[in-house]
Amino acid sequence: MAEGEDMQTFTSIMDALVRISTSMKNMEKELLCPVCQEMYKQPLVLPCTHNVCQACAREVLGQQGYIGHGGDPSSEPTSPASTPSTRSPRLSRRTLPKPDRLDRLLKSGFGTYPGRKRGALHPQVIMFPCPACQGDVELGERGLAGLFRNLTLERVVERYRQSVSVGGAILCQLCKPPPLEATKGCTECRATFCNECFKLFHPWGTQKAQHEPTLPTLSFRPKGLMCPDHKEEVTHYCKTCQRLVCQLCRVRRTHSGHKITPVLSAYQALKDKLTKSLTYILGNQDTVQTQICELEEAVRHTEVSGQQAKEEVSQLVRGLGAVLEEKRASLLQAIEECQQERLARLSAQIQEHRSLLDGSGLVGYAQEVLKETDQPCFVQAAKQLHNRIARATEALQTFRPAASSSFRHCQLDVGREMKLLTELNFLRVPEAPVIDTQRTFAYDQIFLCWRLPPHSPPAWHYTVEFRRTDVPAQPGPTRWQRREEVRGTSALLENPDTGSVYVLRVRGCNKAGYGEYSEDVHLHTPPAPVLHFFLDGRWGASRERLAISKDQRAVRSVPGLPLLLAADRLLTGCHLSVDVVLGNVAVTQGRSYWACAVDPASYLVKVGVGLESKLQESFQGAPDVISPRYDPDSGHDSGAEDATVEASPPFAFLTIGMGKILLGSGASSNAGLTGRDGPAAGCTVPLPPRLGICLDYERGRVSFLDAVSFRGLLECPLDCSGPVCPAFCFIGGGAVQLQEPVGTKPERKVTIGGFAKLD
Questions:
Q1: Are 216 and 180 within 8 A, CB to CB?
Q2: What letter would DSSP give residue 22?
């Protein structure tokens, strides 16, 4: 019984060791230098957060023509293995460079020499071609000497070597060839020794004899991460520069005004983010495996579909005879390239997802990095790793195969193209449509208009997708509402939610398949249901001065000769009549919204609402706008002097004149039709293309908005004790155009002043 339990325990231990070994082997590609394709040796962190071996970086800079900029970033003392004067007697001395060679090196830019000043006015800009991101990164004046070493990555590489026994035995660095196997290492000397060489370089009675031997290793690291500029231990992290800094760096002018935090805070914040992202990936291993299976199925379907497409094309081309043989070969080659490209993209996506499995690739490397206890080193190594984990998490959340498995675009239509065999080619999907922003708007409904680019293939139909952006995000991929097979180049979205922001996009489709989506367009819907009404010229409107359009949605005021004569008598006193136009709808409940456009050249226009009864009283005895010499208490006012202070005004108007909006204290009062708009010190704002009016009948409030951006301009109280009507007042020349409704307005009866009218 005991032997069976021991055997089961041994089997479990061996399985665990196999899993650990497999995990470490899968992580090997994360530990390879992109230049030499070998394990990292003294890796440096480039400004683009990628890593490269120090020796490889020097070689790359040398190939680029930079000399003298490959200094050791760690600035550590040289080891006995690199010091000719302290080499072992068993090792021959290295020949020193000749004086003429040293002179050439100095004159080529290495170090300083007479005639060359430090800190020149135009320092050389050193650009390093990063082999990982294929971009040029700037290293600064100091070159490689200004970069940090990735000590955490070195530790991970060393643990990996120990786990999989990469590289075999470590040899002594001081022995004469053939070297013996190293038995000891010295951190102070930064070298590995056999027993004989260790005794030789650490003689008894000297200071080196106090060096403590360690296990032999290929990488000697400093005890802590040092600032490459000041050789001080890093203690803070600059969020602005995204760089570790020391105490001296903090007081430098280069970091003046930057947001700098202690390295402990950066360590904890970055570790929490990395742990959270890694926990999410590890907690969704089933999703990763499902997506891998889906990608593998897509690969199989791509192979089958590609083969079918090739067979169909071959059959069509063979029917055309010998004239089409050369064309057939080119078409098959195009399909093959497309298939291989898709397979390569899908295979790469599978490999990326496999790296997200527990203990594999990127995840395994991240798990090893999380074991790092040195805070500065962890912050340095985890910054680039967190970006990769974040991108992997985003790719996992918004999963989509990297390539389509359909080859419908490879079909040939040989009906009319028989005469154009020399131009025979695959059908192309429609290009991304262009949204017509001048004709696209949201009012009672959403009207979307678009067009195809000039040289785009035609589209048989379109697909319109839309969604709200002001609702809480749901877990998983973004859900779009879709309207399929839209004919024409416009679409109408009915019954949108009020006070919401919609994002819309469209794409075309033909026999070759679906094209790319257009750019997203964001539309803001009105804050309340849209009120449909027409202009009624029978109440307060002068037929001589006001011209209402046939559709009763536009009105223009023509001042004529009376206004010119009044202007001539302005200094002696005159009366200017106010022309008023009402809407044929009265609001008695709820919230309502409508919009209009005012001609910027209008002299004086008032847009707003008022009580139906008060407006009718004003029509019977139309008030006048008085000259400056007219007595203000002559009775030509709105009756506001008889009301109490607490009472809401019966009118609420926004005053527009000469392309400006007056926002004074009197604009929200019941000055109404009298024209007395408060103090002259009221501020003005530019007139927007369209004005919006939102009436809340229950609250007794009316708001004036910019109908394009829905920015609030003014909010006023209003007496809503009876039916309330839209109203427009003119003094002098002016024009107003009501916003056209998008959808078809149903017929309904409305009542104003006891007259029933069909709306």
A1: no
A2: H
- Cα angle 62, 63, 66 (rounded to 5 degrees) comes to 40
Closest by alpha carbon to 193, among 219, 212, 172?
Answer: 172
What torsion, rounded to 10 degrees, do the Cα atoms 612, 718, 643, 627 define? -80
pLDDT-derived band at 625, boundaries 50, 70, 90: very low
Position 91 confidence tier, pLDDT thresholds 50, 70, 90: very low
User: Would you state the structure tokens that stand for residue 14, as one six-digit string?
Assistant: 């061996």
Model pLDDT, residue 381: 80
Residue 255 per-residue DSSP state: G
d(CA 365, CA 23): 9
Q: Over the chain, what is the mean pLDDT?
A: 75
Compute φ and ψ for 420, nearest 5 degrees.
-120, 45
Position 26, amino acid: N
Percent of the chain with pLDDT over 90: 16
On whether the CB atoms of residues 580 and 619 are closer than 8 A, the answer is yes
In eight-state DSSP terms, residue 572 is G
539 vs 441: CA distance, rounded Å:
32
- The answer to whether residue 597 scores a pLDDT higher than 90 is yes
Q: What is the per-residue pLDDT for 642?
A: 42
Q: Which helix (H) or strand (E) holds 153?
A: helix 151-164
| Distance set, CA 14 to CA 18, 163, 390 (Å) | 6, 14, 34
CB 235 within 8 A of CB 262: yes
What is the reported pLDDT for 554?
Answer: 92
> Which residues partner with 683 through β-bridges?
663
Mean pLDDT, residues 292-318 taken together: 88
Structure tokens at 324: 């089409």
* pLDDT: which is higher, 731 or 250: 731
Cα–Cα distances in angstroms (integers) from residue 495 to residues 267, 446, 481, 500, 524, in the given order: 51, 8, 14, 12, 14
pLDDT at 530: 92
pLDDT in tens, 681-730: 468 899 999 999 999 999 999 999 999 888 988 998 998 888 999 999 88
pLDDT on residue 260: 83
The tokens for 751 are 């009542």
Which of 413, 446, 427 lies closest to 515, judged by CA?
427
Helix axes 375-397, 263-283, angle to 10 degrees: 30
* CA gap 383, 373 in Å, rounded: 15
How far apart are alpha carbons 378 and 388 in whole angstroms? 15
Higher pLDDT, 132 or 467: 467
Strand partners, 575: 626
Could you list the beta-strand ranges (E) of 188-279.
191-193, 213-214, 236-238, 243-245, 260-262
**CA gap 408, 419 in Å, rounded:** 23
Containing H/E element for 548? strand 546-548
For 30-43, the DSSP string reads: GGB-TTT-SB-SSE
* Residue 131 β-bridge partners: none
Per-residue pLDDT at 186: 82
Packed helices 325-354 and 285-319: angle between N→C axes, nearest 10 degrees: 180
What pLDDT sits at residue 222?
A: 61
Q: First vs last Cα of the chain: how many Å apart?
A: 96
Contacts of residue 732, defined as CB under 8 A and 6 or more positions apart, other chains included, come to 557, 559, 563, 576, 602, 603, 604
CA separation for the pair 729, 162 (Å, rounded): 88
Reported residue count of the chain is: 759
Q: Which residues contact 143 (CB under 8 A, 6 or more apart)?
A: 61, 66, 68, 69, 70, 71, 126
Closest CA to 175 of 196, 151, 147: 196
